Amino acid sequence: MLEAISNVLTTVDDLVWGIPLIVLILSAGIFLTIRLKGLQIMKLPHAIRLIRANEKSGEHGEVSSFAALCTALSATIGTGNIVGVATALVAGGPGALLWMWIAALLGTATKYSECLLAVKYRVVAEDGHIIGGPFYYIEKGMGEKWKWLAKIFAFFGVGVGLFGIGTFTQVNGITSAVKNFFDPDSTTTIHLFGMDYSIAVVIAGIILTICVALVIIGGLKRISTVASVIVPFMAVLYVVAALVILICNITKIPAAIVLIVQSAFGLKAAAGGMMGAMIVAMQKGIARGIFSNEAGLGSAPIAAAAAQVQEPAKQGLVSMMGTIIDTLVICTMTGLSIVITGTWDMGLEGVAVTTKAFQLGLPLPDMVCSFILMICLIFFAFTTILGWDYYSEKCLEYLSGGNMRLVKGYRWVYILAIFIGPFMT
Questions:
Q1: Which among 225, 251, 255, 327 has the fewest CB atoms less than 10 Å away?
Q2: Whole-prediction pTM value?
Q3: Angular region, 98: left φ>0, alpha ψ -120 to 50, beta rest
Q4: CA nearest 196: which of 211, 171, 179, 213?
Q5: Among residues 177, 217, 154, which one has the least CA distance to residue 415?
Q6: What average pLDDT does this structure show over 377-400?
């Protein structure tokens, strides 16, 4: 039964992330880049200045522009930056990284546009809090006849938050990282729900559930406060570790860049397989790039709508930096570390690929390298849990017509999903 479900999901996944969607994503990015006259490059210095200013302006909004960006980044920077990049390089080769860059460069224009629209069409609820996102700019920007599409988006937003990106994926990432470090051989186990689990998984799951509950019960302001502290810290910690790897292996970087470019266009493939290799690299790179930076996914606009800003374009510029920070900085660091150390071609999978890259690249004992990566993965996944709770709450609020009692009840269901997450395979 499980194998049949897995086969169906694989078929759907291959269909969704096939050539038609790749063409659609790239076409949208190219159109917006041309229409906005290369805004992601021309206005980049201005966007950086806006982040540094961290201003609050305008009578509407709940948090500063920077806090809104951190809330979005808390959901965006997650397991995709560590595990997702590794998966893409193993499946699509080093060339997948180049297609990630291209998708991110074009996706920056998409992120600017969707976050601008979120501020333009946001709504002030009766109690004064803000709600906005794709559901409102679909309904108000495209017209009432498209409200059905807005409701579909909101419905799937709740589903993705509760059953997908927001809970099980992240929780398993955290508990697996803890287990692999503290109890890799499952020497100490406990029998629960008819199966044996490492005590490290159980303890990590309980602590995680408590921490998540303490934050999300406080709503957006507590989430944004925590995100504003953790996101910069975790990003800097990870980037510094990756930079050390690059500096220690600086002579290998030119060869790695050449390999990435050659692999991206199938130039390293055997005769007759060039086009196939290029398509696989493109498919894996773009798919994982979108999963990582969420450009065009419609999630970041939900956070952007809460920013205390008068000009929608200003928040669009601030929000587009999320794609740059996520993919062009953090994913690049991961990808280059993996390519330089060659761990993409060692028969490893998932987080083991990045862990091995850190062990080979950092001039530190293997145990210390594993600990650094475990800490980064825990923080990345933890903030993603917080961010996606907020996103799914806003989707549910839209679906329920502003029923806040239902939203507050949903928070406890979300916490329950975190609790059972470690025991879901």
A1: 251
A2: 0.86
A3: alpha
A4: 179
A5: 217
A6: 91
